[in-house]
Automatic annotation (TrEMBL):
Gene Ontology biological process: protein maturation
Binding locations of Zn(2+): 73, 75, 95, 98
Family designation: Belongs to the HypA/HybF family.
Protein's recorded name: Hydrogenase maturation factor HypA
């Protein structure tokens, strides 16, 4: 399961960061998920809650920010693409201007921990 392994990686990243910063508690975690990852934000959120049980993350608030896909195409088009048809069977997008696939994906592939709010030891 795609979501589970991502959620697991996120939890480990946050625990690691919390320990390095002498945290006693993690209050809030903001995660950026690109639309192109095809990850389901609701499922990620649910799994983060489950995986954080009995860790320093227990009770933390998870915010999921979905990042829309943006491309820079060789035809000169720059910007958003239609992702309505994006799914696990057809995980590709095409340029809305020329219909091609020769482009650089500027945004939409991320799956990062963007921000962590912690309570520090005195
Ligand atoms: Zn194009």
């Amino acid at each position: 399961m795609h979501e589970l392994s991502m959620a697991d990686a996120i939890v480990r990243t946050v625990i690691d960061a919390a320990e390095k910063n002498d945290a006693v508690e993690v209050l809030e975690v903001t995660v950026e998920i690109g639309q192109m990852t095809l990850l389901n934000p609701e499922q990620i959120k649910f799994m983060l809650d489950v995986l954080s049980e009995d860790t320093i993350l227990e009770g933390a608030r998870f915010n999921i920010e979905v990042v829309p896909v943006e491309i820079e195409c060789t035809c000169g088009y720059e910007g958003a693409v239609d992702t309505d048809e994006l799914n696990h069977l057809a995980p590709v997008v095409s340029c809305p201007s020329c219909g091609g696939h020769e482009f650089h994906v500027r945004a939409g592939r991320e799956c990062n921990v963007k921000n962590i709010k912690i309570e520090k030891r005195d």
